[in-house]
Amino acid sequence: MRHLGRTLAVSALPVLCLLALAALIQTFAEPFQVRLAYAFFMNLVLALGLQVFMGNSGVVSFGHLGFMGVASYAVAILTIPVALKATMIPDAPFGLAGVELSPLVAALIAFALVLVLAFLSGFLVSRLSGAAAEIFTLALLVIAYVVFTAWIDLTRGQRSLYGIPVTSGLGFAAAVACVSVVVARLFRDSDLGLQLRASSEDTLAARAMGVHIGRLRHIAWVISALIVGAAGVLHATYLGAIGPNSFYFSQTFLVMAMIILGGMRSVSGTILGVLAISVGNEIARTLESGPVVLGVDLPEMFGLTGFFLGAVIVATMIWRRDGILGDIEFETLFRRRKAPSKGGEA
Amino acid sequence: MTEYILQQMVNALAVGSEYALLALGLAIVYSIVNLVNFAHGELITVSGYALFFSAAVWVQNPWLLIALAVLCSTLAAAALERVAFRSIRNASLNTGMLTAFGVSIIIQNVFVIFVATRPRAVQTPAFLAEIVTIGGLRFPVLQVVETLTTAVAILALVVLLRSTTIGLAMRAAARDFTTVRLMGVRANRVIQVAFLISGLLAGIAAVFIFSRRGAVDPFMGFVPVLKAFVACVIGGLGSLPGAVLGGLLLGMFEVFLQVVLPADAAAYRDAIAFSVVGLVLVLYPQGLLGKRVELGDKEA
Amino acid sequence: MLELADIQVRYGATQAVRGASLTVGKGEIVSLLGANGAGKTTLVSAAVGIIPVAGGTIRFEGRDITRLPAEAVVGVGLTLCPEGRRVFADLTVRENLILGAATRRDRAGVEADIDRFFGMFPILRDRAGTEAKTLSGGEQQMLAIARALMCRPRLLMLDEPSLGLAPRIVEQIFELLVTLKQDGMTILLVEQNATEALMISDRAYVMANGRIVHGGKAADLIGSQDVTDAYLGAAAHG
To answer: Which of A142, A252, C134, C141 has the fewest beta carbons closer than 10 A?
Structure first.
């Protein structure tokens, strides 16, 4: 843990910026802007969770939204008042219809559940080759979605579960985001993270040097799933109602575009990407509903946000494969600017 | 009882054939340019809208409809290669996969913007919906034709790969593209042909898929293509025989689940199928016919 | 026949070839010698268009082919038999040869050439239907040479044909090169194995650290201190 001090020091800048942003919005903004800001912090936690796995292992995961859903549903089912459950999910298995826990205990149980599921699915992800593992993460997303929609006794299927006590707020979300930044940086700077990144560049060479890629990948998978689980807790405890479609494709596209645009190999890039796509997505959503811009009445164009996200992904891949920041973190960026590169091309 | 079992076996073969056709197209492209083409499913959607629009402009002849649908997916595959995938040709696996993922989202949403999200009815030749009696047993024509068509398509592909120069070049390029170019074979041509074949196979599969579903919507391509990819992984990613084998096995397994699962568990069919496949893969991570990557090979 | 003038090749920031020039005349066997890492493979790869050149010109029979992509170079009559043989492992011996003739349209001529090479290498005839990966190293090298000849080149480049082979096989391959020369083939031979290569060559160049450091008649270079220095010098540089 000798890098602990350094990591805390370099995390200070983004953490302070995020906290300042939250404070400003909380103080001055309209309620709908507070909601947008909350979504930003929640997506940031989600994206950072993904970054821990994808950025270090070099393996793309489409399946993490499943973990978010598991955590959200766990919190929802455990905290919704018994009286409400009697009308929504009276036949819930394991006697869950009669259980009502505090949000904190529910969150802890949700984490435990995510931990178990991530540990089990991690065997698959860590054994398969890169491409096969990536295809299977998508299968995991489908498995999760099928369970959310088909286990009607427990989840109410396609209909939403409501009545979750709203206990979270913007400050809490910002705090969770800051903790996630620090955890992601800690993992990135740790020996594990370093070895994992090195092995993702050349699997054969890493194997030859005795690096256990599978084990490293497994650890990163579990840590990232837990962070994503935190995003799920934030989701359920703020909105008060959840449905299966929040944990499927559209949300997966969104978070993918975020970390691809910013640069998934860097924590700072991830933060930047979440910020940029949050703003862009909001603009696209406004255009989609056919607003009046400069006196011109635009037509309704459903699908514009999706199109925008797809276009961002393709454009980034073609023109700036590693995202805006690549594998550079903020502090390197500033250091570079202060001390112009010595000698340049050596 | 035997009749029921036989009927389900033909059903299983038909579903397996559908996955095999899609998986084969994916495997051909993957083996040559290492691209995990998630946009493959949108080729099915393109075929579907081709059927929808050509019927809307009074194309009546069923054979012409089929030809148009297959032609559209074939051309769409070649167009995707030219417009999107050529600019990332020698990039990493992830770059290719994410590009394909982005392309797939774009195409889906183009259909959302210009057509609509809700499903559109699609006509396929009426004879596919009939029942045929073979040896006193009744089978849906669709299932019989699908299995036979797939067998013919696979046979044709084998002939192409074994006895034409471009076929040899494609097989060789799967291992070592540089040396194939040294032989004077144009890389663009090999890759274009690979995409054309994948589009053609997707188009053929699409005709059967729409005969079953009867409707097209912008997002429908995803699930079949994911199953086809899972089939490829079962067989060993990049192996063509593996894709066919994986497709058939997955299709048969699904039909098996459908038969044995109690009614209230039927909704979980895909989840159970993927989970079981996942468990098998933990034991055989290379897939059934996959080969280990050796130094000097293109990396998987 | 082939002229490389001041060729430069870069891999990112490192320069692998720094201004190399050489010529190969019609009917000659010319050797390109040098230690491992001298830049020989890079130079011939650049000559056939696998690697882009950063500077200099490549002319073949007077025509500028500097920017020609690899697949088009075969068409002008120049071919490379690559380092490490690179036979198509999953294809049969016969399919390897057919693919070697990918640019030709005369089916009968192709069949005749296959027969001719089966005559020259009876072992290939015996293994015609088996996958190339089952052949021994020497057999694979013969297949690689035959495959390169299938496109009827006027100049054949061979990159390290003796790599990893037993001395007896190396001897056979070098004898084959002499036979090819007698039939009128022009050959550029890249070798680490200096002495044997010089025995069959008309002229030779020595490469070190990305430059041609020596050139001359093969007979003069045999046992020459310059050649030895090039190897030792390169070794000393790392």
So the answer is: C134
B280 inside 8 A of chain A by CB: no
Q: What is the pLDDT of residues A191-214, one digit of tens each?
A: 889 888 888 777 667 776 667 888
Q: What's the confidence (pLDDT) of residue B132?
A: 87
What's the count of helices (H) and strands (E) in chain A, helices before strands? Answer: 16, 4
Which residues of chain B neighbour C86 with C-beta distances below 8 Å? Answer: 176, 178-179
Look at residue B295 and tell me whether its pLDDT is greater than 60: no
**Cβ distance of B233 and A150 shorter than 8 Å:** no
C85 in contact with chain B, both atoms CB, cutoff 8 A: no
CA–CA dist A40, B12 (Å, integer): 47
**C-contacting residues of B 186-205, CB under 8 Å?**
186-187
Confidence at residue A342, expressed as pLDDT on a 0 to 100 scale: 41
Q: Is B239 on the interface with A (CB under 8 A)?
A: no
| Complex ipTM | 0.89
- Check if B168 contacts C (Cβ < 8 Å): yes
pLDDT score of A57 more than 70: yes
Termini Cα distance of chain B: 46
Classify B170 as helix, strand or coil.
helix
Asked if B177 and C88 count as a contact pair (C-beta separation under 8 A), the reply is no
Q: How many residues does chain C have?
A: 238
Substitution target in A51, A70, A142 with the highest count of B β-carbons within 10 Å is A142
Domains of chain C: 27-52+62-237 (3.40.50.300)
- What residues does each domain of chain B span? 2-220
CA distances from C151 to A1, B116, B172, C80, C113 (A): 62, 54, 17, 11, 10
